[in-house]
Write a structure and sequence with these properties.
A 5-stranded antiparallel sheet has the order 3-4-5-7-6, covered by helices on one side. The protein has a two-stranded antiparallel sheet with strand order 1-2. The longest helix is centred in the middle third of the chain and has 18 residues. Helix 2 packs antiparallel against helix 3 and helix 3 runs antiparallel to helix 4. The protein has 5 helices and 7 strands, in the order E-H-E-E-H-H-E-E-H-E-E-H. 32% of the residues lie in helices and 27% in strands. The N terminus and C terminus are likely disordered.
Length: 168
Amino acid sequence: MTPYPLGWITGKPPQEANKGAYVTVQRTEQARYRRQRASVRAARTDARRLTTDWHHPDLADTVEAVVSELVTNAVIHGTTGRGSQVHVTYRLLPDRLRIEVRDAASGTPRLIRPVSPNGDNPERGRGLVVVAALSTRWGVIPRVIGKSVWAEVLLTQPTTPGDREAER
């Protein structure tokens, strides 16, 4: 288990974070995908497997949908050079699962209205609306190159250090 400064997890700059406050990351897993549409399916499959491997199968549908939307956004809107990748990081905290999707594209994704002012229901632009509805909270962290979009899903049963010992 690794303690991380609370500001690092919340995405706040160190000067705005609670000084001396730490959160324990109990498990971490990372995956890299090519920036292509087929990667979305692979990321969904990996997300579902991870929830089972980490003993939270009840979150499989939610985590799969959140990952699908975030990776889709990175693949479609990540307008970087050929061969670029999308990085997905999962962090299991005592009370939630944090999903972070990083790409090398600039720009800040924002939540838009799912229905246009004239009443039309657009076919695109619903990804972050879905993420906001399924997650406890979400946000964007600008990086030197690109950005990370993260979302957190509450665990239905909190994970304790003793749970990790039982897995060994």
